[in-house]
UniProtKB/TrEMBL annotation:
<feature type="domain" description="Heparinase II/III-like C-terminal">
    <location>
        <begin position="310"/>
        <end position="556"/>
    </location>
</feature>
<protein>
    <submittedName>
        <fullName>Heparinase II/III family protein</fullName>
    </submittedName>
</protein>
<dbReference type="Pfam" id="PF07940">
    <property type="entry name" value="Hepar_II_III_C"/>
</dbReference>
<dbReference type="InterPro" id="IPR008929">
    <property type="entry name" value="Chondroitin_lyas"/>
</dbReference>
<dbReference type="InterPro" id="IPR012480">
    <property type="entry name" value="Hepar_II_III_C"/>
</dbReference>
Amino acid sequence: MQLAERRIRLSLGLLETRRRLGRRLASLCMSIGRTSQGVPDRLIVAPTDLRAIDPFIAEEILAGRFPLAGRLMEVENDSPFLQHLPSKAFAERLHAFSWMRHMRALKTAKARNQTRAIISSWLAIHGHHTRGIAWEPHITTERVIAWLSHSPVVLNGAEASFYRRFMKSLAFHRRYLRKIASCVGEGEVKLRIHIALAMMSLAMPSSAKLVLKDGQKLDRELERQVLADGGHISRNPRTALEILLDLLPLRQTYINLGHDVPTKLIPTIDRIYPALRFFRHQDGDLALFNGATATPAAELLAALRYDETGGKPFKALPHSHFHRLAAGETTIIVDTGKAHRLDVSQTAHAGCLSFEMSAGRSRFIVNAGMLRFASRSYRLMARSTSAHSTITLGETSSSRILQSNLLGPLILDGIEEVTAERWEDSYGNDWLKASHDGYVKPFGWVHRREIGLAAKGNKIKGHDHFFRPEDQIEQRHDESLTATARFHIHPSILLTKLHEDTVMLEGADGETWLFSAPGQSVDIEDDIFFADVTGICPSQQLVIEFTLPQTTDLRWMLKKQG
């Protein structure tokens, strides 16, 4: 292990150790001072939940079956918290109580009673301490937002004893989140903690000073995490949507109650909307970069319903480092960046220079995406360069992912510099040229990709070029190295090989494109798509292999038929 890497590991390890120690001390303080705190007598408001609901899930839970995180657990009349839970992801979903939104769909006394019974069992088993998975920061935050948003489900018709226990637990949650807010790493979880605290200051009786203070802390976190172009520091399009779905009800709650809205809240919302439109494909779904997974259409539409910014999507997000080429009914989105910082790269992918393409009502070329409740091995697979529509050298990712139980899967090294240039030629065609140096250290090659979209949106030209930087020309021997170009195809697309170098792609709506790579053998291979709404599903990919330095240029083209 190199000295620089050891220093990075040591520095981050010490920081994370201090954070974990801080959370443990917070738990200890909570157990000591639990009984001395006051309990609010009521909730003032229940923020709206804009996320999609599914009555089927509610019916299953009512029947004693919990369909969570891709698993099904039957409990009949027992408490689910006394069972052996089928997976960590299942346990997280169960303890987060996000499933409460589905119970709201039934609007029956039986559903309310069942939800109260489940919460009562949680309070009895986990409500008197802050240990275990139930009190992980991201789970605690999600549970608070769920309890606040769906409090009418459980408090309507509740007995006074349950009402008091529920309010006492919310007060306990608020004190805990306040204590651990500074002991959480940078990223989405920390932001959502401050969103939850701001919600609690509005929903529970609070002084004007406390409402103002929580709003100011939220402002600071929004300023840190939401970039000037509306993207999130994780570079994950889905994360921006998730944050927006929490910020919109929060904004409305401030307005409805007559409180001053935090200074950064509305400008942040207005920045996120153009970024969402930027990442939105022709079929309405979001692009699959850096951990993004399938987006329920109802959730995206629920957020876009409040979009007052209007206008066409931007051509580029200069701070998030993405480019969008669009003409006619064709859209191309290209990743021209890397992780912003090492400490916020837990979900970053090694997908620099990968692209996605949609036309008509279909996505044709995609990245593999991320399974929402994936195991560690699947997550590593989905983050590799080979899971993206770009070129891999020596079956090695362009960035290396550090595996650490303490620090998590961070992007440790690889790409140091990414360049991007955009122009329009005399025919009105839109061109992008970008390069990255992720393969310079291991192999001595720079990858440069050039993509051009015709003004009518009916033709796409691609040129991948590999070259050695000047300081590597004499140091490297011309050893043969396999390069593999992958174009991951959306599962809804039908592939037909017409010639050795030509494949036809047909969408579900009948839209047809021809992919060709003159002088190359274009193979159709089996693939895995992680981001289907049903989970992992089989798909296909177009694969072109060539050898460096014998072949340093790969030219390919997509042309619309009819």
